[in-house]
Structures are given as structure tokens and as C-alpha cells.
Amino acid sequence: MALTRWGKKREILQVAEQYLVECCEHLGLSPKEFSKSARRFIVTRRWPDEESVLRQAVYGAAISSSNGEVTAGHFSPYSRRDRHEFVEVQTHELALDELMREKITHFYTKLGKHDVEGVYKTIMDQVERPLMEETLTHVGGNKLKAARILGINRNTLARKIRAHKLISAGE
Fold first, then answer.
1. Which of 45, 92, 129, 162 has the most crowded Cβ, counting Cβ within 10 A?
2. CA angle 38–44–48, rounded 5-degree value
3. Is the pLDDT assigned to residue 40 strictly greater than 60?
4. 109 with 82, same domain?
5. Which residues does 73 contact at the CB level (< 8 Å), separation at least 6?
6. How far apart are CA 56 and CA 44, in angstroms?
């Protein structure tokens, strides 16, 4: 059955859920369920006509999930639209804001009643440097790709690389 010919979103979701049960049984995984984000991803994605593509995607997502829930972030991105959804879900699930809040609270607790200046720049530098390093590592040093991923101009990236002394002057 061609996935693009299915009339109802519920049908594709039912097939995906069957594949998820099948995957868990075949591979001896504990039972898993799709999260709300995964369900949204499944019904909004434009799947190729072959059911094997859906099956492969579900199997891959189930294997990459370490607990009983499969989220949209567990699916590999296939198209530019999927990559946007993938990044949106992944960053949401990372809960960076919670991590930062915890670290900043700890910083101020340790600081006590002492006066300091320049906290904003210090914190932003500590966040920005590893972000630049890891993004550049992720793209094998390709600055144009890194700038695109970060959503900044390549000249801005180059300036930040120099400011953080991420490369030697000869590069």
C-alpha cells in the first residue's frame, strides 16, 4: 500500500505503531510507545511510497530510544523539513535552559553576597565557546556549514572563532 494514498493520518500512525511493537518483539526490546512529538512527526512527514521506509524509520527510532518512549528526535532526519523538526525536538529535549538555570543558581549561591561585574559576558563566553567548538567538530571544520547550522553569517563565525582563539593565526 502506498503511504501517500492513505486518506487518514490515523492509518499511517497505526501502521507505525504496529512496526514499533514488531520491532520490540523481534529485537527483544522492552515495549515502547510514541511520544506526542513522535506521533506529530509521523503524521506530518511526507513518506515515500514504500512502506519499508516507514518500517526502517520506526526500527531506527526504537533502537535509538533508551527508555520506553520514542520521540521525534529519535527519528533520523531525511529532508530539510525533517532536519528542522529534528533540531527543534532535540534542543527542546536537551533542556539547556534548565541546565543553565541550575548552573547560574549554583554560581550565585557560591558567590554569596560578594559583588562582581561582567557576569553576562563571562557566562555568554562559556556557552559560546563550546558551542562553536562542537559545531565545528560536527562539520569537520567546514566554517560555512557551521555558520549555516548556527544561523549566523560566516564572517560573524570567523570573528567569534578569532575571539575565542579556536584556531591558530596561520589557519
1. 45
2. 105
3. yes
4. no
5. 37, 86, 89, 90, 93
6. 17
Q: How many domains does the chain have?
A: 2
Amino acid residing at 44: T
pLDDT in tens, 88-133: 555 555 556 667 777 888 888 888 888 888 888 888 888 899 899 9
Considering the entire predicted model, what is its pTM? 0.47
Percent of the chain with pLDDT over 70: 78
Helix 51-64 vs helix 9-27: crossing angle, to nearest 10: 50
